[in-house]
Amino acid sequence: MLFIYSIVLGIVQGITEFLPVSSSGHLVLLHNILNFDFEQNLAFDTALHLGTGFALVLFFWNDIKKYVITFFKFISGSKSVVKSEIDFVFKLIVATIPAVVLGLLFETIIETKLRSEWVVVSTLIIVAVIFLLVEKYSKPKKGMEELTFFKAILIGVAQAFALIPGVSRSGITIVAGMSSKLKRSEAARFAFLLGIPVILGAGFYQIFKLDFSTLESTMIRIFVIGFLASFISGLLVIKFLMKYLTTHKLNVFAWYRIGLAIILILYFLMR
Fold first, then answer.
1. What is the pTM of this model?
2. What is the DSSP string of 140-168?
3. 253 lies in which domain range?
4. pLDDT tens digits along 216-241
């Protein structure tokens, strides 16, 4: 049964990490609803997040390779560096800093105080309202080359709020990009590339903190199965969402979040 739960949670992670409905929020809730409790719940969630992190790497591999080469050309003093490309690299770097700093500063609070059902319900609704407001009032029209460093930092600050379960890292960074006048598809691309160092960094940081001597071989196999399930499902969802956002708004995800929050409130009150 644990292996089935691992696959289910891996698929849920792969879908909800990239759809703007909050992966961490769904995982917290599923652990409670299914009464699925590992001694290493947070470590298992880390394995699932690493799966989606590597899905991002594979999907955006050509972009990553291009920007890494550009960065090393720049630091080596090469004259062939394309200005728009190196600017984009540094925008990603400065936008990554807020989530890293705040994640390290508030790690204990996030892992203990904020991984609760009512926090998830609250953030599901609050962020849904933000989606609806941004879709109604923002006028996205700019390309990535017009994103300023200041606005890149603001998008990074928005990403830091996704450390709170229920917010949705992809969702909050996409609407932050749209608020900076980026086209929806461009905002999604920036959000996904921005998520790679944060997702992988947080995942490997948690791995280094694990006491592997306490993990049985069965538990390790469960982690691997969950990782693969989240990787495969995540890859499929990235491809879908990048195409979807070129012609569709975020409203459907906002109403999903509100509907889910209502269902969860009723469930928590009646159990």
1. 0.89
2. --B-GGG--HHHHHHHHHHHHHTTSTTS-
3. 2-270
4. 777 778 889 999 999 999 999 999 99
